[in-house]
Amino acid sequence: MSVLDLPDLALDLILELLPPSGLSSMAKVCSSLRERCVSDHLWEKHLITKWGKVLGPAAHRDWRCYISSSCHLDSPNNRIGHHPLGFDKIISLIRSISSGDEKRKRYAASSLPLDSTMSFYLSLETGRFWFPAQVYNRENGHVGFMLSCYDAELSYDTHTDTFQARYAPHGRKAVAVEKGVTWERLRAAPIDISPHHLHVSDSLNELKPGDHIEIQWRRNKAFPYGWWYGVVGHLESCDGNLNHCHCHLNEMVVLEFNQYTVGSRWRRTMINKRDHREEGNEEEGFYGGIRKLSCKEEIAMWTRLWPSSILE
What we know:
Radius of gyration: 24 Å
Protein name: F-box protein At2g32560 isoform X2
Shape: elongated
């Protein structure tokens, strides 16, 4: 019995169990398997499994712009089965994903239909496509960015299983580049908004002492926002006794950043929740929108990133 004699459902179930390299190998067998093995529904599973946690709406938008702007999109030579090298050659190049041949991997990704999920996967895998995401503790945990998360463009390096990050320029400073960014320091942006735009908070009236939050902050108005971790504190007029606390009823909210030492100008700030807008100055920076954190996984991530010593 040939594998092609199997019912379609059984064959699809087998193909769904194959890793990317296995799908590429099966696609070499014949034209029928080729059509099945490059289908979007098979590669979408691999895309979500490996890349789902770091790809947000902005990454998918950028991918659509990337493929629509390619001068090769409408070229007959850019479609499977029409490449002058032949499909077998293309598949052998695709298989080099696991062989470590960077030059061949890049060529394989460029030989696929640009609008396919397989092409998206390979463009990410080879680092050809720089995608937007956010990086915790940017610039190798520089003390000036501890317990923050900033937007960046990222390119994957399959040899090291890490990323290269390009951060937006700060004022007159050049674009900052960081290499060796690990998977655990990445996340898809939880809010689909430009880092230069103020987030309109929708949970200010719910905030109460002990709540975990992220707040936008930037050094000056020429800089992009980063997201900084903090907790809601008690007003000075409150003794902290939860049985008598009415802080949540006050129009002012205390935000504490306990990674900084007591007395530090960065340790504590207050915002008006009834008329919230960007607040601050050129000396202490500008505070923007607030996200209330309800997800235990998000809170645990910040806890894991907590510095080993208190910051000044």
